[in-house]
Amino acid sequence: MKKNIVILLLVAMIVSSCKKSFLSPSQVDLVYNEVYWKTSQDAERALIGTYSLYRGLMVNAQMYNRGDVTTGLINRGWNGGSDPNFYLPGDYSNINGTRKSWGAIESYADWSGFYKVIAQANLVITHIQSMDDKLFAKGQKEELLGEAYFLRALTYYNIATIWGNAPLMIESIESSSQVITANNELVNTPRSTDIQIMDNVLADVTKAVNGLAFGIPGSSKWGIRANKGSALALSGYANLWMAFLKQRDGQTNASYITNAVTALQDVVEHGNYSLASYASADLVRQMYKGRSSEAVFELNISTEQNESYRVDQGGIQYLTCKLLPIDGDVSKDRASSINFVPASKKALIYPEYPDDARADLFWTAWESNYDEPFSDVSPTATDRNMVTWMTKFANFSPDPSRQWNEYVAYFADCNIPVFRYTDVKLLFAEAFIKNNQPGNALSIINEIRTRAGLETYSGSDPMTEVLQQRTSELIGEGKLFFDYVRNNYFPVSSVMTPDRYAQKGYYWPVSSNILTTNKMLTQTPFWNGKTVW
Amino acid sequence: MKPLKNVLSFGKFRVSYGASGSIAADPLLQYNSFISNTNIGAGINNIYANKIDVKTYGGVGALLADFNKIANKSLSWSKSKEVDYGIDLEFFNHRIYVTGDIYSRYTSGSVFVSELPSQVGYNSIRSNLVDMISNGWEFGVTGYLFPRTSPFQWDMTLNFSKNSTSIAKLGNGGRDYITSNYAFVVGQPAFQYYTYEYLGPLQSIDDLPVNPMTGERMKYYGADAGLAINQQGKIFPGMPMFTDVNGDYLIDGADYGNDKKIIQGKSPEPKIQGGFQTNIKYKNLNLRVQSSFAFGNYIFNTSLQQVLSQYDDNTAFFTKALYDLSGSINFWEKPGDNAYYPMRYISYSDGGSARSFRASSMFLEKGDYWSVDDITLSYNIPQKWSEHIGFTRVNVFSTVRNAYMWKASNVPDPRMVTKTGYYNGQGYPINRSLVVGLNVQL
């Protein structure tokens, strides 16, 4: 009897599938604009595609290299780590000079990846807008649009802070006529100014803030999907950057500072965030793993959800984590292949060490007094256990299907931070000071200091203290270089001479590929003749 | 008319005009499609090494635009128009046949890919980008040496043809269309090599030009050669010289593309090509020989380049088998050597070297060949004998394929080249075979 039922079912299945596929064939394995965008799930999946692209862009330690290695606080290991050109001052004395600073790192001068995120976001924004409201649950359309506006604003914020002037693309590409004329001429776009781009960021951020709601801690979207708190944090950043640009160009900037204060106040008061405890290394580790009470916006990395990468292939762990080999043999660790903090730079990060608990919470062997990288073959005697490496992102799990000779085969298991609450609080303090409310800033500074085990601040320069606390707290999270540019404050002064700063040499050059495919585009002025391409 | 009729037995003059079109291979080019790409979002460079296939973000499936394809709704067929003038003549009572053609073909809107500026997000677009014009002629003559009724028959056929294609128009304002190994330039032949121009091994340091700006001698750009002795990029005698196209006194030290140029006068298109065949028949015995030839073209010896490039890569050099090239390849070994190929120079550490054996005009060889493709000897057994054993017809034959080839180049088979002249035989030439057979008709 059972057998018969199975056979009957099979026959029924065959009959039904025959009906569909043979008599009315339709193109089903291709999804394109004209047939897509029919349900709210379609809209969400395309939006998720934007998140994915942005994560793909950021996953390989993009902002760590741009935001931290460039500060000069970090050195490269003997056998590996970040490109030293990130922090070497440029030496342009002769045409064959090998030291070109950023002019030697062409892959980081290429913005193609950023514009792919922009293209996807433009597509999502245009199409969700034109979808019927009835397809969505109440508020869902505004929310999906708000997330898309947030991602576009975030990407343009990155572009504007990295390259300054850049093409501004806000239309979705629907057909070839937008990129190529009837005469087969490519349609080119020149660089808009940094202020024009930041204007657009601010407009998008406002739309995101209006469309989004605050997050609910512990919900499935907490931390990894943009909410009103994420958008307000970005608003704070964008307004303060705009204030910097306006001041640089000799224009009034007070309104941007007030806007930053308002936005940051809103996120602090209503964002449902709280500072994580630094009581133990475990708690700190948990916070960096992700989705903690500090998760204002992070990019999801999770082995459990099959969204991870092997840390021996890339990512921030590849550059920063020593990694204990799975078989326990420490002589096979990566001690000589990672970035480390040389002893001479340590006072710039934790001037009050050993009182500062963060030195040991975020790093191993902070007490090490080696200025040289560890190497088995180094002429200077060093110790592999005394490499000062960052433990913030040392969350990973072994690859169950690793090969026998893969000793450090781990999958990463911690989110990529974009904004965290500490970061927002310190930015709030910075905005207060710039808004002539240093008293309000002081209480934030002291909150951060107390958590780190330090006395309350007694000095007279709260702005420098805010930047010092940002350095101590946020090192490794891709923020510092931009903070330093915004405030013209460089702890390692050789990375940014006053001359280079005055010539806007804090902006990156653009790669040769970009220059050759777009005839209307010119090199970032400071880098003319200073690149290897 | 009578005397002429004795000479010319048939004559025809042909004029033809035709238009045709060919459609682009991918019918889906008119759509902007979405893909659930593999490893979006967390793919560190090498997805195989990375070992996780990411298709979601926060557990939700993702779809994204296929940036390799942008909808081009105006993409159309590439059209070609051809005019052909031909003549067919027969002389001396069907003893000599002559046929000649001269043609001109204009192909408009060939579909090629052009790269888009990066701010667009999409990588490239296929469009009707290139117009080409092909001019050529064909000529054939067939002669029967004996009267057509004679039991002894001997005929010969000789064909010649020549075709040359050049670029009539390019999109994007006529901007040169340059790929990694060929380049289209308006007015130039369509198929030309675009690569480094090899000038031979350096004989003496004194032969190196001096940069008047710096007083330094010409050196390699971006090459590790000489790094060990703190002389990075220095060119030593025996190392290859390439034309410094951009005039910066730096020869591209690897395949960076700085000093590539169109190699003039060495086209992959033959100056003349054709075939020759002959049949000799006496009663039941028949001998047929077919041959083909091409002269005046240059081909790129990909197989030699791949073999020699192992000398540029120290890992390959120490781990892979090297070919025995003694006798066939003449490397530079000491000053004064009149060698065509530069010295073998093994890089030392990070894999850097002068990249002497990168793709360059060093590997351009004359493509001239004459090949006897097919020799067949057959014999029809007289009918009375075959009927005796019960068959209508019995034919015994023997064929030698690829019997003989004369060639100017070192590639195993100069016929196996792509349209752009690159040898694609991948090491297996067409084999020579001997077939002995029996055809039986019941």
Automatic annotation (TrEMBL), chain A:
Primary localization: membrane
Subcellular location: Cell outer membrane
Organism: Flavisolibacter ginsengisoli DSM 18119
Entry protein name: Starch-binding associating with outer membrane
Keyword field contains Signal: yes
GO CC term, one of those recorded: cell outer membrane
Domain SusD-like N-terminal: 106-212
Family stated for the protein in its record: Belongs to the SusD family.
Domain RagB/SusD: 384-527
Keyword tags: Cell outer membrane, Membrane, Signal
Annotated InterPro entries: SusD-like_N (IPR033985), SusD_RagB_dom (IPR012944), TPR-like_helical_dom_sf (IPR011990)
Signal peptide: 1-19
Transmembrane segments: none
Pfam families assigned to the protein according to its UniProt record, in alphabetical order: SusD-like_3 (PF14322), SusD_RagB (PF07980)
From TrEMBL, chain B:
Domain of life where this protein originates: Bacteria
Protein name (record): TonB dependent receptor
Species, as recorded: Flavisolibacter ginsengisoli DSM 18119
Lineage: Bacteria, Pseudomonadati, Bacteroidota, Chitinophagia, Chitinophagales
